[in-house]
Every structure is written in structure tokens, then in C-alpha cells.
Amino acid sequence: MTASNVSTPTPPALRAKILVEALPYIRKFAGKRIVIKYGGSAMTDQALKNDFAEDIALISLIGINPIVVHGGGPQIGALLKKIGKESRFVSGLRVTDEETMDVVEMVLVAKVNKDVVSMINFHGGKAVGLSGRDGGLIKARKAQPARLADTDEDLGLVGEVDKINPEVISSLEAKRFVPVIAPVGAGPGEKPYNINADTAAGALSAALNAEKFILLTDVPGVLDSDGNLISSLSEDEATELVESGVASGGMIPKLRCCLSAIRGGVPKAHIVDGRVPHALLLEMLTEKGIGTEIVREKAPGL
């Protein structure tokens, strides 16, 4: 065995220090809801999938109430390609006709959701999978394209969150279950609508009075004009980054989603690099955290 294959054990004193550092955060978040948007590499890399499932199981077992909302765009695209149907996007939103909606629901609810639930349960959690259509959790309306994608094109069965029914989540939490939610909403007549996972998670965090909204993605966080990571932003500063064009591409809808959660009453939103092992624990239970936090007003302390 070469030296590069040998891991250096963490000294006992340092391990104890790490655990003690987490104590005030465990105390602060005990009994509180944390909504996590799960997506990107953290959903596709096997080691990162295990890390995420372990993180969810751990924070649940120490008394925090995680609520997971997952994406599944690549998996949907793969199945559509397999059946010979082309994926089409407008400003990052999948144009969703009825056939595509059938595939979206099949992949998100019957495949991805069950896989996430199984991983969490394997690592000691008590996860239960559901879609936004279950128990009237997410009531949806047809999306207004001009508001979501700066276009007048009809996006088909793409939906926006109209109303959240928190009773479903409360019932699961009372039995210490972890809700894992596929972002499919129920429209008029129970018609299914495809809802962007970031948007659904942000709306859920506000409606459920979450303590935090954490968005896992494939970038280090929000970057300034020089490409440096910004560790903390006020609501006004985040808005300015969008309006000035410093934030661009896929970061714009992520910031807007976080701002929507903040304006809905969530104290803090976080954009976190899900490619970092145990990113969730590092962001929640350490002093410095990782990624970028967005707050109504920046303040010292926790």
C-alpha cells in the first residue's frame, strides 16, 4: 500500500472539537424545519449520494426536521431520448406536452423519488416519498411564461405553485418521518403540472415556515465580478447582483428562488456546492459553512 492510499486518522482532540463546534447549531435548529433542494452532481455521483443520505439521516436523528425536494432533469431527458422524443427548453424550463408530462411523472415519482427514499432509509433515516399531488400538498396553476421565462411561448404543462397544504408535512413530522417530495403539482381537475424543483422548494420553505432553505447545486456559490465566492449577501445585495448582471445564467433563477423564500419569511437561504462531500452538514453545523447565504439583513452570530 502506497502512502497516497493511507488516510491519516483525525486526532481525538480534533474530532471532539469538531463535535463541540456543532453543538450550538444542533441546539438552534432542533425541532426546526430545513427545506433542501436536492439536485446536480449530488444526485448522480454515488459517493455524493451516500454522503447526502447520511447527512439527512443524521440531522433527522438529532431532532432537526429536514424536508427534501428533488429534481431529476437528466433522468427525464434520458428516458425521453430513449423513447425517441426530443427535449426542448425555453429559458431553462422544459416545454411539457402531455406525453412529456407522463414521462416526467414516471421518472420523478416512480424512479428518482423512490431511489432517494431508499438511500436515506439505508443510512438509518425514516424517509417517505410523495409527490406534490399527494394529499393536495402542492396545488398548481398553469405557468405564465412571461413571468418565468421572459417569453410569450406556451410551455404546456409547466406549472407554478398556487397553494401549499402544510398538513401533509406536519402529519409525517409528527411520526418523525422525513418527507421526500417530487415537484409535480395538482392543477384544476387534478391535472398534473411539471414544476421547477428550485421554485417548488422555495415556495415550500416559505409556506412551511422553514428556518432555512438550502439549494444544492454544482457551483461553489454566488461569485462576485472578479469570480470570488461571496459568503454572505443581504436581500438588497442579492437583488443588485441580479439587476446589475454580475449574476448570470443559471444563477439568476437560483437567486430569485432564494429571494422569494426570504421574502416569504424564511430567515436564511443558502446556495451550496453539492459536489463537496457532506456539504449539507458543513453548511448547517459548522461556524464558517460553505457556499453563499442570503439573509434579509446581514448580522453577526448564528
Written overview of the protein:
The protein is an alpha/beta fold and 302 residues long. The chain has a single domain (33-295), classed as Acetylglutamate kinase-like (Carbamate kinase). It is 41% helix and 21% strand. It has 10 helices and 14 strands. An 8-stranded mixed beta sheet has the order 5-8-2-1-11-13-14-12, sandwiched between helices. It has a two-stranded antiparallel ribbon with strand order 3-4. Strands 6-7 form a two-stranded antiparallel ribbon. A hairpin with a 5-residue loop joins strand 9 and strand 10 (192-194). Helix 2 crosses helix 4. The longest helix is centred in the middle third of the chain and has 25 residues, at 98-122. The termini are far apart. The model is unreliable at 1-6 (pLDDT under 50).
Record keyword descriptors for this entry.
single chain, 302 residues, alpha/beta, Carbamate kinase, eight-stranded mixed sheet, two-stranded antiparallel ribbon, 14 strands, globular, disordered N terminus
